[in-house]
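Have a close read of the entry that follows and walk me through the local backbone shapes. See right below:
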Amino acid sequence: MTSERLRLVGAGDDCIEVFWGRLPLFTYVYRVTAPRSESPKPYLHPVRTLSGDVITAFRPEDHVWHKGVQMTAPNLSGQNFWGGGTYVHGSGYVDLPNNGTMEHVEWEEVETDGTAARLVERITWRTAADEVWIDERRIIEVLRVDAPAGVYQLSFTSQLRNVASHDLVFASPAIEGRPEAGYGGLFWRGPDSFVGGRTIAAGGLAGADVMGSRAHWLAFTGRHDSGGVSTLIFIDDRTNPRYPTEWFVRTSPIACVSPAFAFSERLTLPAADELTFRHALVVVADDVGRADAERLVAAAQADATADAVSSPAPKLRASLS
């Protein structure tokens, strides 16, 4: 039986590090200092496998606003919570004065019992004109760690409440006219070494067929500069709007994945209403084929169901060290 346990370590007043024993699994940066043009928002980076390999990229030269794992929105009623330029049909990407921010307000929970961890925070989405449009309750959880198998499971929940005085509409560059550019929502940018990686998804999908297709899970396998291989399995929750999601995924010229709820159709969040998105990410320090991916997805969905029906959720014991 392993003696390793999860630990949460506060690093200054801008980030939290999550450790498995002495291994830093990931850092969550919740207060971000970045140019307004990058639409500053919280992110996870670096994220590591249980073998210690990094599976995220940070501010790559081609897209400096890509930072590990983030919640994003490239076009929210004309505001850019993605970063960089905004896609305008007929003009391409245009730098507009519309870059919004997602700002940490407060922590509600920062806890672990050594086997699981839970971070709950309040975030406000502010427009370029400094108007608060969305109040978000964000939950990041480590649900399980299977060290002998080299597997651990993360869960990301975003509860979005429209606090603007009008409806808010999520869209994507694909909707505005750029083919296949349906990105938005939870977004992962992988390291350069993952370019040329392998993608498979539910329903027998693989390779180029995954882009824009609907599936309840997607697996991306890539190789590290060290020669090791890792697989990330992204899982769409059954309760999400438009389940199963359409996927935005590239293996070249960059490695990235987004379960894109507004890939091909606008999604409206009425004034004073709420939307909740939940996704799981299973991180495997190995090459994973379809049969093993389906087994891991089934286990993750069982964990999510058990978590959802436990009322109230069990309190974890220890906070920051």
